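Input sequence (368 aa), recorded before submission:
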Amino acid sequence: HLMQPTFLNDSIYLIEKPIELSSDKVAFAIRTYDTEDGEDNHNGVYSIQCRAEDEPGFAFSLDEIPFELARSINAHIDYKEKINENIFFHRCFALEGNKLPIYSIGPEEGRFDLNSEFPRRFSITASDFNGNASTVNFTVVRSASIAPQAVEPIAYNAVGAPNDVTIITKQGIQVVWPENCFYEKTQLIVNEVERDKKGNFSPYFELSPVEIPVNTYFTISIDGHLVPASLLNNAFIARCDPNGSVVNCGGTWIGNNLTSDVREMGTYAIMLDTVPPKIKPVHFKPDMTGWSQMDFRISDNLRIRDKGRTLTYSAYVDNEWILMSLDGKTGMLSHQFDGRIPPGKHHLMIQVTDDRGNVSKFENSFTL
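Predicted structure, token format:
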């Protein structure tokens, strides 16, 4: 149920009519943001408190989060809303495998009991770092007249749990999720699926549910007997996004299986990369007398994630290595002329290599 509260006054919001549900338990998530200085700046809130009958029920404060637990923010928010709608809802309850040290949990742990006789009164207060706060008040009651929503049974392959190792082996694929991979018990399915996109050298396998976050890398191994022997080094584990794009997740051969560690559910297959990277001169000419630097933009045909390796590069002037720096966001490769290359005519060679070993070279003479 999505509810939009009504603004009353003095930072107080209200949902006027009682919320009727068929369930015997309820938990909440809230979308909120801080409009600093009256501007529409969607800054994150600092803390949220959920109270039931004016008693503390669940709260969190977004203090410093340890780097090693930063990925658990995906468990703190409603991950499905994030990836489908790019909307951030804060959960007012903690998933079992969420280890973030930011929560204050009441006796009902944010999952509140409901009955049809007594409506329950709730309030949720969001505060910024300076203590400015807004509160929404509402009631929830279990309705005896609303039939519980029927849930279709799912023919799942295994149940993943936060503290278990889970393995699914099917024809052509094996997936191994280690301990601490899931944030809650999850019914897992691995199925071969049809896709319009070609270029695959294995079936497409969907790991579902695709709309859940995972905490750690898990291992996927796909049978690669369809890959030509001459192109084994070009094969990679591809994550095929719903919009048709392909992500290179790397890959290592173990026998006849191509294996990699990934951190997202979704659709995977083996594909080939035989396309070398691109090297485009941006700030370079044969005569660079008096110039302070030269710049090139390097790019690849595939996005890289998980265990896929980013572009590597090396550069030489007159067969001597030179230092170049790469801006990872723009792909700009630059060299500052600091006097180590003397005035005169020189020969430049830049070599760029992608994840699958495809190589591009740029060679040209220049004068300083």
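Checked by second reader. Residues 38-42 have pLDDT under 50 and may be disordered.
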